[in-house]
Predict the 3D structure of the following.
Amino acid sequence: MSTPLCFLNDHFEPFACAKVHVSDLALHRGYGVFDYCREIGGKVPFLGDYLDRFYRSAAGLRLEVPMDRGQLRENIFHLLKENKYGDSGIKILLTGGETGDFYHPAKPNMMIFNMPYHAPDVSFDQGVKLILFEYQRFLPEFKSINYLPGVWLQPLLKEKGAVEPLFHLSGRLTETARANIFLVNKGVVCTPARDILMGITRKHLIAVAKEYYEVEVRDVRVEEIFSADEVFMTGTSKHVLPVIQIDDAVIANGSPGPMTMRLMEEFERYITSH
Amino acid sequence: MSTPLCFLNDHFEPFACAKVHVSDLALHRGYGVFDYCREIGGKVPFLGDYLDRFYRSAAGLRLEVPMDRGQLRENIFHLLKENKYGDSGIKILLTGGETGDFYHPAKPNMMIFNMPYHAPDVSFDQGVKLILFEYQRFLPEFKSINYLPGVWLQPLLKEKGAVEPLFHLSGRLTETARANIFLVNKGVVCTPARDILMGITRKHLIAVAKEYYEVEVRDVRVEEIFSADEVFMTGTSKHVLPVIQIDDAVIANGSPGPMTMRLMEEFERYITSH
């Protein structure tokens, strides 16, 4: 098998060979932004949304993207054409750059990766477990590379049989390490309004849900999740994933609920039509 | 001028050429640890303390240091001998490593950098300004590379004429982005006890201060700093640095206080004798 191509600053090169200088501010201070979208059957659903967010994240961290949207889009599709996966993941990464003093941002390194898509190793039929964890991401609206808690918590997640930490701040729910969270209660779909990454899947799921149900985007307390009829999470790689347990508390009867199942189906239909 | 040498995994190479693969988890998720110490006149004061903390940070983030203390010490002194600065900075960096899925830690990349020492560009005679900022580092006792707030706040610091943000959590002081904080009130030296990086300079400054003054290591409220007689910060590159203003509030008469000045002198004497 040949190694896939990736993009690095101004050229395409085999992923296996691509390297950056050791002075990069992402290595020294965890400073950088990224975004991740999916190629599905040769198309990239909601690419415009992902590019919007990527440029917004870069501006939020005061990093200059060294190409305009047209060039970025062109580079992405060149990679897809060369790598020929058909279904794949696309990651755009912009670092703080090669810095003289290991502290001040300089000329960013920009990379685009394209890798085979592997569905998350979880049960969409049975649902998954989360664990509550108090933490608030810094600048949550920007997709920075700061994932220390999410990565660090992995052994605990494994031990508990959970897939992600569900973050809250003084009992107000926000998001999981890599996804947005939704509750269903008395037929109403509800999701936290603030201090979160504005997920692209979240945005479109809200649009889909509004066609069938009442939707509330507002502050959500931890207590509400324990009395919810249904819970699910949304993300680019998982789309809609039912949640059936938080810590030791089983949600409702411990199976994915009917509204979650319907939204899973409707979302797949919606994304195919886009 | 020839480029200095650095150490990368298993060999020494010119810093200008040293590169790591783009799959490193520090680039993708800001996951890694480091430490920084100084060579002063060919010696490295408190090196044992710095190595202790580095191995503790690595263990805290569940990263394996690919060499024992003896080898690490040997590599450091080999760099100092080759680079011949006499006075320099030494940075040890251990990343989350080259990962297959951009999320799970793998074999770490380990680097040692040695660069000329530049004294911080601040006035030790006149003292410096800090700005208060609410933030709590995740796993503060480990020296992770997670410096998003410190790096991100730099334009604001510059605008305000401040050198560092002073972090607090609900009004309880912790530390600055890169240093520990001390107050002097009614002849007593006091410094926050918890949720901080245990600074090596902090530790030795406490030892020095105890020879002359009463020292309290305890929780410190933000309000206390505004009524303090003196304020100073400690760190590896700055040793003891007087603080004369927090936001718009001038500390006492706006000049470095007598106890701070004495501790600055005594600390320099102490470090020379070590």
In short: Chain B has eight helices and 15 strands. Residues 128-272 of chain B form a domain with the D-amino Acid Aminotransferase; Chain A, domain 2 fold (CATH 3.20.10.10). Chain B touches chain A through 45 residues (CB under 8 Å).
